[in-house]
Specification:
single chain, mainly alpha, Rossmann fold, 2 domains, two-stranded parallel sheet, 4 helices
Length: 91
C-alpha cells in the first residue's frame, strides 16, 4: 500500500509542478517525501524551515470538510509562515 501511495504522490506532485510552470518560471527546490500521520501536523513539521507552504485544495464540499476537517484550513490557521492554498485541477 505504501508503494501505491508513493506513486500517487509522485504523480500528483509532477502534475502540480507542470501546471504551475509558465514561460517565466523559476527553479524551485522540491523535496518529495511520503509520511504517515495527520496531514496538517506533518506538513507543518516538515515545512518548519520553508519560506512558503503551498497546499492544494480538492473542494470536497462543506459536509465532508466539516466531518473530516480541512488540511488547508489547519495549515492557514496553525502556520507561523506564509501559506498558499491552490485549487487542484481534476486529474
Amino acid at each position: 500500500m505504501r508503494v501505491e501511495a508513493e506513486e500517487q504522490a509522485a504523480g500528483t506532485l509532477a502534475r502540480a509542478l507542470e501546471n504551475g510552470r509558465g514561460k517565466d518560471a523559476t527553479t524551485v527546490e522540491v523535496e518529495h517525501i511520503v509520511i504517515e500521520g495527520r496531514a496538517a501536523d506533518e506538513i507543518l513539521w516538515h515545512s518548519r524551515d520553508a519560506q512558503l507552504i503551498v497546499v492544494g485544495a480538492h473542494g470536497k464540499g462543506l459536509l465532508r470538510r466539516a466531518l473530516l476537517g480541512s488540511v488547508s484550513r489547519a495549515i492557514l490557521s496553525d502556520s507561523n509562515r506564509p501559506a498558499a492554498v491552490v485549487n487542484l485541477p481534476d486529474p
